[in-house]
Design goal:
The structure is a homodimer. Chain A is α/β, with parallel strands linked by helices. Chain A is built from 16 helices and 19 strands. Chains A, B: It catalyses: 5-phospho-alpha-D-ribose 1-diphosphate + nicotinate + ATP + H2O = nicotinate beta-D-ribonucleotide + ADP + phosphate + diphosphate.
Chain lengths: ~450, ~450
């Protein structure tokens, strides 16, 4: 398995090498992660992945073998190889907490340190955020659509095997209740769920044999898969075998709304009134919303969760916005590339509220001094600072990497949505829920 | 890092546990991986990921800690825990070779063994194939559109950090020439490429300083990023600094066709006639095709490569098609779920050719005996057997996991495309390039 320090693009190391040689590697820098726009029609995004970045950080150092590889491939010089032997990130990272709603130009992560240490982190930070935020944002739309009904991640098989673990974690941030993925359950101590595959029924000489076997192994509280042959026959058999205490049934095909109605009626008629109905057939937020009035107890979501429901990446970029000059002072920097301009200076992100309801995202650009002195005028109502300090001069806030923090992020996600105008929860295409104002206060 | 045996859904283990208890775990089974349909409008898919599955296979065994976790979470009983301590896959895996074109219902992987050993592999096999085939399929469309011009993977930052490695590998299968991703270059001994980020220019007091630094570190053969400020000024500076032997320039924004034209004229006028032009701004196969007449030398592709160009997963499923009954004989099995029916019996996939051109995909379903006896009638022309044996009763063909095999897969990919009707390479929406015929020969 690779060191996290190799989960990156080559040019981070060639830039490091060149900067060490020309003396700019130690210039103080501020890099920021943001997206220029939400995916078309989306009202908000959900920040996720910070905890995973913090988990990687202490291990972000190329091994001896990695360094030998880099030298051998002429990516770095021997001087840089020596420098890397002692590498440790000693900078500061501020970020939107996981579960927070974000918008276009929200500086969801801000990395401050030397050019050398900040540039090495670029690719890994972007990989984590682009994927995790995509999944959490989709998850959030699905859980909103589901109302109080639990949503479960069953998507691991539809994405890369390690992405599956990250997806399970990000889905929790976006309001999911559990995952089918064992590695994720193990890594993050998450509730793990599962029923059975059609293969299990087909393996047996009869559906009854399969149900008996599953109940013998897992008890009557288990969930039986009932759509291998006839759903009606399967439910009859299931209740015969398990009794009315049967935990649940799962339907994985067909018109879920009408099938759930029929199944509920049949279960109730058989006395299995507390047996739950889980549905799992290519669900997305729209399908979930359409099932609102169907007697469904929980949703198992696969493909559309792990692929961000049509938006598998978040277009997050990592841009240098401020750096030390030869005069030893910090200067704003910005590229002018067509359609990809950036705003110089570090950002301070504030969310303004009136009567507890979010009104807008105010992104101030300015020198550290000017930002410290800035006072919001009354027009902004109450303002909340969006960035928390996750790493302070190399000191990682490890409380942000725990399972408790993950569930706290889910709670924060609900609170963050609650504070937005109600149109934020609309699934139809529209503008972002609150506007972003970018304000340069230094010049 | 988790054992590969945990990169899976919980239900694989609960099914194993139940089957061990009821005595069906050792029934011989045949599982098959296929997709019911190509993504809308796609003409073909490209098989990729088999080598990665084979790499995982010897390590696919839960560790002591994993087993303790599974027992602790009541996923498995102590009997199953003991059984897992000695687990080793001893079955047979046949598959479409990497780089092969596939279609709806092509059985791209066939796993034969006991229910116990085959079911445990389901999730991991699907994760690998769903992601890797999605990337290879997109890569293939891009490299076809690029004609002979090299395409390079720069997408690692747009997907999960480990998915990035798999994407780099799969892009090679689909015809790419190299990757920016160091971990992938290291793991698979791939050509690694890179230029510089805008941050590197912004870090310096002037663009000239940045170019001088990069050339000092990497030589004049390097590729300079020229769109931080004015492209025209940057090219002038680049040639002043590097001389006419400058390796290349990269343009990452704006209208790439016209900018490449202008850049080429300017470079030629400055005498830098061999300096190459790389473009990298959110390219997909359509953008690449549109640049066919522009003086572009290579394409750096990011987001659209690693997200499968709109199709981030392949809808591959893993289905039990044949299993031993209580009579000790093999029986076909198929579920009848609405819209998700399967065909029983193991498959033999043949591609039929006339005058060297592929005519159709013939998927025979039948008992092993009947398949062995079957002879194609003349109407099928010449037929080629699509499945190769990758694992023979537990014995892994490790020659399929080497870097040589990866580049051979790329060659095979070109050959496979060449044999298809020319409409296969059309980027417009259409039917699959050749039809799939599913033929049950046993009954």
């Amino acid at each position: 398995m690779n060191s996290p320090a190799m989960l990156t693009d080559m040019y981070e190391y060639t830039m490091l090498d060149a900067a060490l040689q020309d003396g700019t590697a130690n210039r103080r820098c501020v890099f920021e992660v943001f997206t220029r726009h939400l995916p078309t029609g989306r009202r908000y995004g959900i920040a996720a992945g910070l905890g995973r970045i913090l988990e990687y950080l202490p291990h972000f150092k190329p091994s001896e073998d990695d360094i030998a590889f880099l030298v051998d491939r002429h990516v770095i010089s021997k001087t840089t190889a020596q420098w890397l032997e002692n590498f440790q990130f000693t900078g500061t990272i501020r970020a939107y907490p996981e579960g927070e709603a974000f918008f276009a130009n929200s500086p969801i992560v801000q990395v401050e340190g030397t050019f050398a240490e900040c540039t090495l982190l670029e690719t890994l930070i972007l990989s984590v955020l682009n994927f995790d935020c995509a999944v959490a944002s989709a998850a959030s739309r699905m859980t909103s659509a589901a109302g109080g009904r639990p949503c479960m991640d069953m998507g691991g098989r539809r994405t890369n095997e390690y992405a599956a673990i990250a997806a399970a974690r990000a889905s929790i941030v976006g309001g999911f209740q559990g995952t089918a993925n064992l590695a994720a359950a193990q890594a993050y101590n998450l509730p793990c769920i599962g029923t059975a595959a059609h293969a299990f029924t087909l393996l047996h000489d009869s559906e009854r044999d399969a149900f008996v076997s599953q109940i013998n192994a897992l008890g009557v509280g288990t969930t039986l898969l009932t759509d291998t042959y006839s759903i009606e026959d399967a439910i009859t058999t299931a209740v015969e075998v398990a009794g009315t205490e049967l935990g649940g049934i799962r339907i994985d095909s067909g018109d879920l709304a009408s099938l759930a109605q029929q199944a509920r009626k049949q279960l109730d008629a058989l006395g299995a009134t507390s047996t739950t109905i889980t549905v799992t057939n290519d669900l997305d937020e729209y399908a979930i919303a359409a099932l609102a009035t169907a007697p469904v107890d929980s949703y198992g979501v696969g493909t559309q969760l792990v692929t961000g429901s049509g938006q598998p990446t978040c277009a997050m970029v990592y841009k240098l916005v401020e750096r030390e000059g030869s005069d030893g002072r910090m200067h704003p920097v910005a590229k002018r590339s067509f359609g990809k301009r950036t705003d110089g200076w570090r950002k301070q992100a504030l969310r303004s509220y009136r009567y507890g309801l979010a009104q807008g995202e105010l992104v101030l650009c300015g020198s550290a001094d000017d930002l410290a002195k800035w006072e919001p005028s009354e027009e902004y109502g109450e303002v909340r600072d969006m960035l928390i300090c996750a790493v302070d001069h190399g000191d990682i806030d490890t409380s942000l990497t725990t399972t408790d923090a993950l569930f706290a992020a889910r709670d924060h996600h609900w609170k963050s949505l609650q504070d937005l105008p109600v149109t934020a929860l609309s699934l139809s295409q529209g503008d972002q829920a609150i506007p972003t104002e970018v304000l340069n206060i230094s010049e």
